[in-house]
Amino acid sequence: MSSRTSDVLVIGGGVIGLVTAWRAAQRGLATAVVDPEPGGGAAQVAAGMLAAVTELHYGEETLLALNLESARRYPGFAAELTELTGHDLGYRRCGTLAVALDADDRAHLRDLHALQQRSGLASEWLSGRECRRLEPMLAPGVRGGLRVDGDHQIDPRRLAAALVAACERTGVVFHRAWAERLDVAGDRATGVTTADGTALRAGQVVLAAGSLSGRLAGVPGELLPPVRPVKGQVLRLAVPPRYAPFLSRTVRAVVRGGQVYLVPRENGELVVGATSEELGWDTTVTAGGVYELLRDAHELVPGITELPLTETRAGLRPCSPDNAPLLGPSGLAGLLLATGHHRNGVLLTPVTGDVLAHALATGELPQEARPFTPRRFGAALGEKLEQPA
Ligand code: GLY
Predict the structure, then answer these.
(1) Using the 8-state DSSP alphabet, how is residue 382 labeled?
(2) Ligand 1 atom closest to 276 (CA)
(3) What is the Å distance from ligand 1's center to 313 Cα?
(4) Minimum CA distance residue for ligand 1 atom 3
C-alpha cells in the first residue's frame, strides 16, 4: 500500500469537484482529486442551461438567491477560465423563452411570471404571436410565453474539459482511481483508500461525488449526505447549416406536467432534455424516454423531426431533500461537502468553487453559502466551522 499526501483531497472529478480543486489550488493549498475519469459525470449529459429565473420553483427562494449569485459570477468565471486554458466554453448569452401550448400551461406560466415579478426578476410576458416572431420554428398553437433574457447557457462538456485543464495548470494532482472508502482516524477524516489499495492522505477532504456522495463507504452512517440519484434522459440532434438558425435561444415548456427544453448551441448542436425519473442508479436510455422527449419537443417545434438524432444519453442528478446543495463543513472534522446540486450543478459551479475554497482556506463559510450548510438536515450532518489543519 502506498500513501500520498495533500492539504486538500477532493473526491469526485465532475464540474463541482474540479472547480473546488481549482479554486483551492489558486489559494495555495496543495490539492488532489480522486476520480477514475476526471471531467466525466453528469456534465457529460447536462444541457447546460443557466436557468436561475425560468427554473424558479415555489418555496425555493433561498436557492434562488444562490442561483442568481452564481449567474452573476458566470461572465467573470468564464472569462478567467478561457484566459487560463484557451478553451472555448460555449458560453452563450442567448436568453430563454418559456412557452405555453395549452390553457393549463398558460395558467402555469402566468403563475410563474407572477412569482418572478414578486421576486424582483426580469421576465416579460409575450403573446403567442410575439413568441413566434422571436422564434419562427415554434408551433403555430403556442399560446403565449415568458421571455427571460438573463437565462443563458454553457456547454457542460467544454466546461468540464476546461476545468480539468485549469486544475492541471494550477498544480492539482489527479489520482485516476475510485475512492473506495473514506478513512477516519479518531474523530477526523484523514483521506481515502482507493480501489487498488492506495491510501491518499489529506488535511481536509471534500466529498463532491455527485449522486454517489450518499453512499461512500467509511462515512459514518449519520453523516452520509441525504443525496439520491434522479435520472435524466437527454437527446442531442444536429442542425444542418441549411436549417440554421433553427432556434436562437433556449426554448422550453411544461408539457403534460413534464419539463422539455431545447438548447441550441452555436456549433449547430441542439440538446433536448430531460426526463426526471426516480429509478435509483439506472442509467438506461429507454424507448419511452426518447419517445416522450421527441413527442413533447415536436409539439413545441414541429420541424425537429427533420433533424438528425446524434446521441441519446442518461445521467443522474444528485438530489437533496430540499433540492438545494449541501455546502461546507460536515459533522466530521476534516470532511466538507459539495454535493446535492440537483438541477443546478452547472449553474452553481462558479459560486460552489468560491465558497468551498474560502471554507478550505479560512475555516469560514461565506455568508451566501450559510443557508446551505449540511446542518439544516440535522445537527449531526453539519458542524461548527474550524480553522484548517
Ligand atoms: N436543469 C435541467 C435539468 O436538470 O434537467
Answers:
(1) B
(2) 5
(3) 14
(4) 343
Are residue 174 and residue 312 in the same domain, yes or no? no
> What per-residue string of b and e applies to 288-299 under the rule 16 or more CB within 10 Å gives b?
ebbebbbebbbb
Rg (CA), the chain: 21
- The reported pLDDT for the residue numbered 150 is 96
* Ligand 1 atom nearest to CA at 346: 1
Query: Under the phi-then-psi rule, with left for phi > 0, alpha for psi from -120 to 50, and beta for the rest, what region is 236?
Result: beta
Task: State the closest ligand 1 atom to the C-alpha of 317, by its place in the atom list counted from 1.
Answer: 4
pLDDT, one tens digit per residue, over 316-327 is 999 999 999 999
pLDDT digits (tens, 9 = 90+) for 332-370: 999 999 999 999 999 999 999 999 999 999 999 999 999
**How many whole angstroms from 226 Cα to the centroid of ligand 1?**
19
- The total of structural domains in the chain comes to 2
144/239 same-domain check: yes
Q: Is 49 in the pocket of ligand 1 (CB under 6 A)?
A: yes
